[in-house]
Amino acid sequence: MERYQPNGTPLSEADKAELAKLKELLERAIADGVLTADEMGQIKQQIRADGKVTYEELELYRQLVEEQIRQGLLVREIC
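Above: the chain sequence. Below: its structure as tokens.
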């Protein structure tokens, strides 16, 4: 995943590992076309797992989840 951030620092190996875990979780959660409340809770927990929310995590969520919702390919379950 390419990133552009003025004055940004390169991702550490730990950050890359966290991003890979998030991507795997997101892909599993959206595979059936429905994002459940439980899956959303797991996603939020993973994003916050290291005590910070990064631009890359939010961008990955936007690309994999929000774009599919906008395109009608993914439905978010409402509780």
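Strands lie at 34-35, 75-76.
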